[in-house]
Each structure stands twice: as structure tokens, then as C-alpha cells.
Write a structure and sequence with these properties.
The protein has 259 residues and is an alpha+beta fold. The chain has two domains: 10-138, no CATH class; 153-258, no CATH class. Helix content is 42%, strand content 24%. The chain contains four helices and twelve strands. A four-stranded antiparallel beta sheet has the order 5-4-9-10, with no helix packed on it. Strands 1-2-3 form a three-stranded antiparallel beta sheet, with no helix packed on it. A three-stranded antiparallel beta sheet has the order 6-7-12, covered by helices on one side. Strand 1 and strand 2 (32-35) form a beta hairpin. Helix 2 packs antiparallel against helix 3. The longest helix is centred in the middle third of the chain and has 58 residues, at 82-139. The protein is rod-shaped, with a radius of gyration of 44 Å. The relative contact order is 0.09.
């Protein structure tokens, strides 16, 4: 305390303009500061506040140091003089600024943690929503209208023969869309044959269809269609709709007739 201050060189002056009393390099982008060899991200408002304090501290300290040097030359260098009290006050304000920076960093960390948590919740919500939509899409009856230009029995038989043992699908509809809750049946194309001008099932004794107890009520069966992939290649429209009751099982082997 009371010794002469180190002379301010041009190099020290330039460094003082770039660094505040805290040693923070304030010439970086608005959201960064460098302390020593490390660079930290800070809120631009906090950096501006640090810059203002640094400028203010620098100017005040230079004046007080000059005053202290003058007093020291005259022998007034005892502890407790106003100049020493002022320096202690500056140190206290510097510590307060550092604590403010620590508080800002803590609040930012808590904010980032909350943002990550919210993002995770949004991701889980989106995943659940997509799963629900997928289930609803699976349960949504397909549109399966009768073919506009049905093939005659001989043409259909040739097409099925070309498919060999590849699977085809039998679906049950109300004449326009698939009956809800009643699954379709996969059957080998080789299980069809042409007989008396019609295409019928061969080597299959039973084709059971169960109507679930799901509160939907009776289903009105209006047509049976045959699909290859997504294409309806044949259909049989019933002369009158057949009511299928909930919880009951039906055998449609004799109803699979096309052409």
C-alpha cells in the first residue's frame, strides 16, 4: 500500500482499453468474453454492463492511483486514508459484478435445462400422437368399391393361374368400403379354379369370419372382393345385404364365387 504505481506504457494502455479491471477481453462478439486464455458466452446485456463497469472502474482507479501517488510522495501513505477506502470500495463493486455474472450463468443453465426438458416432452408428445394416428389409420376401413370393369371368369382364372402360389386377398365390404373389425383373408392364387364358368375356391373346406364384440353393432355385408396387392381384380355383389351380428362366426367358403 502506498508504493508507486507501475508507469502506464503504450502497450499497457492498449491492453487496458481491451480489458476491463476484471481482465475480461471485451473486443470479442457481443455474446462472448475472454478471461485469461478461456472464452465464455454471456448475455450481451451482461457484457455491456461489464464494459460500462470496466470503463468506470478504470477511470476511477487511474484518478485514485494518481492521487495516492501524490499523497505517498508527501508521506501520506498510512492505511485508512480516504484513497485506500475508495480502492476497497472499487474491489467490492468488482466482486459484486463477478457475483452478478455467476448468477446470470446459473440462470442461463437453468433456462437451458428447462428448454431441453420441454423439447423432450414435445418429442414424446409428437411420438405418441404419431402412434395414435397410425393406429387410427390401421383401424380406418379401406375404400374397396366393386371394380368398374370386372373381368369375366375365364380371364380371371388365367390371371390367377399366372400368379401361381402368390397370395391374393379376400375382403368383405358393404359395397363401398371394408367392414370395420373384420379382417381380410390371404389365400394362395393356386387355391382358385374355374368351374362351370365361375371361379371358385378349391381344396379349402372352410373360410371362417368372426365379428368382434366391439360395440359397433351388426355389419351389413354387401359384397366380397378379391385383391391382388392394392388392386381389386374381382368382386361379387350380394343380391341382398347380409347382416353379420356381433360376436358371431360365419363360414363364407361357399360364397367365394366370381364371374
Amino acid at each position: 500500500m502506498g508504493g508507486k504505481a507501475e508507469p502506464k506504457t503504450q502497450e499497457n494502455g492498449q491492453k487496458g482499453e481491451q480489458e476491463g479491471e476484471s481482465g475480461a477481453d471485451l473486443t470479442l462478439p457481443d455474446n462472448q468474453i475472454a478471461i485469461g486464455e478461456e472464452t465464455f458466452e454471456v448475455d450481451p446485456k451482461v457484457k455491456a454492463l461489464m464494459f460500462d463497469y470496466a470503463q468506470s472502474f478504470g477511470a476511477e482507479r487511474e484518478k485514485i492511483e494518481a492521487l495516492r501517488e501524490g499523497l505517498a510522495e508527501r508521506g501520506f501513505n498510512e492505511p485508512g486514508l480516504p484513497v485506500e477506502i475508495a480502492l476497497q470500495a472499487l474491489d467490492t463493486r468488482t466482486e459484486e459484478l463477478q457475483k452478478l455474472g455467476e448468477t446470470v450463468d446459473r440462470l442461463r443453465s437453468e433456462r437451458d435445462k428447462a428448454v431441453r426438458s420441454l423439447s423432450a416432452q414435445k418429442g414424446a408428445t409428437t411420438k405418441a400422437k404419431n402412434a395414435i394416428e397410425e393406429l387410427e389409420a390401421r383401424d380406418r376401413p379401406r375404400a374397396l368399391p366393386m371394380p368398374k370393369e370386372p373381368m369375366d371368369a375365364r380371364e380371371l382364372a388365367f390371371r390367377l393361374a399366372d400368379l401361381g402360389s402368390a397370395p391374393v386377398e379376400i375382403a368383405f365390404t358393404d359395397g363401398r368400403k371394408e367392414l370395420r373389425g373384420i379382417g381380410s383373408r390371404q389365400i394362395s392364387a393356386s387355391n382358385f379354379r374355374l368351374k362351370s364358368g365361375r371361379v371358385i375356391l378349391s381344396d379349402i373346406d372352410k373360410l371362417h369370419v368372426h365379428v368382434p364384440m366391439d360395440g359397433t353393432g351388426a355389419r351389413s355385408l354387401g359384397a366380397i372382393v378379391l385383391l391382388e396387392g392394392d388392386e381389386v381384380i374381382a368382386g361379387r355383389k350380394l343380391s341382398s345385404a347380409r347382416q353379420l351380428g356381433e360376436g358371431k362366426t360365419y363360414d363364407f367358403v361357399g360364397d367365394i364365387v366370381f364371374g
